[in-house]
Amino acid sequence: MMSSDERWADQPQEEGRVDMREFDDDDVIASPYSRKVGERLRVIRRQKRLSLQEVEASSNEEFKASVLGAYERGERAISVPRLERLAKFYNVPVDQLLPREDVTPSNEADLLNSKKLAVDLLKLTQLSGQPFEMLVRFLKMIQVQRQDFNGKVITVRGDDTRAIAAMLDVPVDQVGQRLDALDLLFRP
């Protein structure tokens, strides 16, 4: 008896045509992203306080312990429909089963926005207008929280940039550029 692989090998292919064998999406060779997905699957399962065997039993064997373990180790890739069913089983949105993207600065502008920004408070107090007055109040609040009263410079952290973006009416990833254009970044 000939295997399906041998049957495919015996058939001539049209020039330029790729051999498109039927396969299960789950059998795709795992990638680094598959491993990250697997890590996330394991975190969610553990948060639900379920063992692999309990998932298998509770899902009426839809999710076999051995297969789910292979997903979690990144040894097998999980298909989108199966991921959706697993999310329903865990009662979480599908996006919660996916890893968070690592943001790596790809150019100088991104690098400026990804690092902590030192705002020159003396220059800021010389600007007038509602956004700048709001920004001064916001940065003073941060000074009080941190008990940092040097009065000349304050370092803005990643979480602070969202609020500053709203005050300056720019996207979050452009806060550093906007502060630089306003000459508000402290340069030692």
Per-chain topology:
Layout: H1 4-10, H2 32-47, H3 52-58, H4 65-73, H5 80-90, H6 108-114, E1 117-120, H7 121-125, H8 130-146, E2 153-156, H9 158-168, H10 175-181
Helix pairs in contact: 2-4, 3-4
Question: How would you summarize what this structure contains?
Answer:
By secondary structure, the chain is mainly alpha-helical.
Strand content: under 5%
Proportion in helices: 40-55%
Number of strands: 2
N-C termini distance: 78 Å
Number of domains: 2
* Shape summary: elongated
Largest sheet: 2 strands, antiparallel
Estimated structural class: mainly alpha
CATH class of the largest domain: Mainly Alpha
Total count of helical runs of at least 4 residues: 10
The low-pLDDT segments are 1-28, 103-114
CATH architecture of the largest domain: Orthogonal Bundle
> What is the fold named in CATH at topology level of the largest domain?
434 Repressor (Amino-terminal Domain)
The CATH homologous superfamily of the largest domain is termed: lambda repressor-like DNA-binding domains
Topology as a string of helices (H) and strands (E): HHHHHHEHHEHH
Strand order of the largest sheet: 1-2
Radius of gyration: 27 Å
Mean pLDDT: 78
**Oligomeric state of this protein:** single chain
Features:
single chain; 188 residues; mainly alpha; 434 Repressor (Amino-terminal Domain); Arc Repressor Mutant, subunit A; 2 domains; two-stranded antiparallel ribbon; 10 helices; elongated
